[in-house]
């Protein structure tokens, strides 16, 4: 049996290399088109097990010159010069020896399982090697004489004019592709999605910035799921199901917003840009929609969520939500016994500020990972606090006490402060300060509070 597989090299850099929003959405479509075109190569001899999210897996009977040739053609047509790792090898399952595989690819109980986990492991290993080889060759810096203004990665080309300038062919193809997106709710105009916070609206600052909400979701440990499968049919059916599920979850959650965008949609991950006010609600709907995957297949997701000014370049926005998602995944890995939960990390960034955000004593951490249940609880808690006269001023004083006092002193100081300045019942204050604050969640509590104050329901809106 002959196996052919491909994987788009650093897919995120293909998606996010351009500064233009349109090009980012177009790039995501190009990946889809490429996968679709590869799927269509299927025939009697060529069986497509899976193609989606920039990866594909095929089983070939007999001579394979046709598939390889089509692959090269389609790659050039849809992805231009972007590298795609591809491997092809004869698979002989009689001579399988797992010792050759790096530890993270070895499947447990390989001997008892069907052929598929063996193929999957081998493909993953071969692709990884190939990608490393490509990456090594790419490290030599190219010096460009006229870099493309959108991506800066290629020479601009006078055949492709764009806004009084020229751009490279890759950026051109991406932007052209984005014109295919037809949905009155899907937009490339961040002004349509973004909303100003209530605070900025009141103040007289000259530059009133709009904010956007960003959700980056990714399936947890899907490799483990794949490795439990016994046949290639199981694998392709599941991949398709997962994609459909994700797609309908996104569409369902988008029903509550006026405009949104999905610049990235992979096999098991997606990036969604939406109006800030609905971000928590959208997460709730996403979760509800993904519930069958969780209960039936034990598939959970990690989410990075951020509300931030729309002026932050998308490339950085992606890095921020990616880092938040890492926090969520990290937290998940700490509690192996509770793996059947979704995890999330949330940040409200009201000024473009990058870098690690911790106070000097490393006590205050923003964007900490937690289960989505905990995040929803904080959100609810915040609404309760606001009703109990906890204001922005109270919150900022509380933060100061938190940073400056030792744990025991904090409990005392905050108790007196909160009982004098708010309407939180005294019996609840102790629980509040010990519970919410001790678990490294004060930063998130503060972020959610400021977010809720700017975008929450009630008061002025519109
Ligand atoms: Zn370019």
Detailed description of the structure:
α11 links the parallel β11 and β12. About 5% of the residues have low confidence. The chain has three domains: 137 residues, Alpha-Beta Plaits (2-Layer Sandwich); 138 residues, Reverse transcriptase/Diguanylate cyclase domain (Alpha-Beta Plaits, 2-Layer Sandwich); 75 residues, no CATH class. The protein is globular and about 80 Å long. The chain is an alpha+beta fold. Strands 7, 8, 9, 10, 11, 12 and 13 form a seven-stranded mixed beta sheet that branches. Strands 2-3-1-4 form a four-stranded antiparallel beta sheet, sandwiched between helices. The protein contains 16 helices and 13 strands. The structure holds zinc ion. The site of zinc ion (ZN) has 9 residues, from α5.
CATH top level class name of the largest domain: Alpha Beta
CATH level-two architecture of the largest domain:
2-Layer Sandwich
Would you list the SSEs in sequence order as H and E? EHHEEHEHEEHHEHEHHEEHEHEEHHHHH
Tell me the total number of β-strands. Answer: 13
The proportion of residues in beta strands is 15-25%
Low confidence ranges? 98-113, 200-207
| Class by alpha and beta content | alpha+beta
CATH topology of the largest domain: Alpha-Beta Plaits
The mean pLDDT is 83
Distance between the termini: 62 Å
CATH homologous superfamily grouping of the largest domain: Reverse transcriptase/Diguanylate cyclase domain
List the ligand species: zinc ion
Based on CA inertia axes, which overall geometry fits? globular
Radius of gyration (Å): 25 Å
- Please describe the biggest sheet, giving its number of strands, its sense, and whether it closes into a barrel: 7 strands, mixed
Number of separate domains: 3
Helix content: 40-55%
Number of DSSP helical runs: 16
């Amino acid at each position: 049996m002959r196996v052919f597989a491909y994987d788009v090299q650093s897919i995120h850099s293909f998606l996010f290399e351009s500064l233009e929003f349109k090009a980012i959405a177009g790039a995501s479509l190009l990946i889809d088109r490429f996968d679709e075109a590869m799927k269509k190569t299927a025939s009697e001899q060529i069986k497509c097990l899976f193609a989606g999210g920039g990866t594909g897996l095929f089983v070939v009977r007999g001579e394979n010159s046709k598939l390889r040739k089509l692959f090269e053609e389609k790659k050039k047509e849809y992805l231009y010069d972007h590298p795609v790792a591809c491997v092809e090898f004869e698979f002989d399952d009689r001579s399988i020896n797992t010792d050759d595989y790096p530890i993270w690819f070895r499947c447990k109980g390989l001997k008892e399982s069907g052929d598929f986990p063996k193929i999957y492991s081998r493909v993953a290993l071969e692709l990884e090697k190939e990608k490393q080889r490509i990456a090594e060759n790419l490290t030599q810096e190219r010096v460009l004489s006229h870099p493309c203004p959108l991506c800066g990665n290629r020479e601009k080309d006078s055949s492709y004019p764009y806004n009084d300038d020229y751009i490279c062919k890759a950026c051109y193809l991406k932007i052209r592709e984005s014109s295919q997106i037809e949905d009155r709710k899907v937009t490339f105009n961040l002004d349509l999605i973004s909303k100003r916070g209530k605070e900025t609206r009141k103040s007289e600052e000259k530059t009133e910035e709009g904010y956007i909400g960003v959700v980056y979701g990714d399936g947890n440990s899907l490799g483990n799921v794949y490795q439990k499968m016994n046949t290639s049919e199981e694998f392709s059916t599941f991949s398709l199901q997962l994609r459909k599920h994700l797609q309908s979850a996104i569409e369902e959650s988008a029903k509550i917003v006026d405009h949104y965008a999905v610049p990235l949609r992979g096999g098991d991950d997606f990036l969604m840009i939406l109006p800030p006010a609905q971000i928590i609600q959208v997460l709730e709907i996403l979760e509800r929609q993904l519930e069958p995957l969780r209960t039936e297949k034990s598939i959970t997701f990690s989410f990075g969520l951020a509300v931030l000014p729309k002026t932050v370049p998308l490339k950085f926005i992606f890095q921020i939500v990616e880092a938040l998602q890492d926090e969520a995944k990290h937290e998940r890995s700490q509690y192996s016994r509770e793996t059947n939960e979704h995890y999330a990390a949330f940040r409200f960034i009201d000024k473009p500020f990058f870098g690690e955000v911790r106070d000097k004593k490393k006590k205050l951490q923003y964007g900490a990972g937690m289960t989505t249940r905990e995040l929803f609880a904080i959100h609810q808690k915040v609404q309760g606090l606001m009703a109990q006269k906890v204001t922005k001023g109270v919150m900022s004083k509380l933060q100061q006490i938190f940073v400056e006092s030792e744990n025991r002193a904090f409990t005392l100081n905050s108790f007196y402060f909160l009982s004098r300045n708010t309407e939180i019942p005294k019996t609840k204050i102790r629980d509040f300060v010990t519970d919410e604050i001790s678990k490294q969640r004060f930063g998130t509590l503060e972020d959610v509070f400021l977010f809720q104050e700017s975008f929450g329901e009630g008061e002025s809106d519109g």
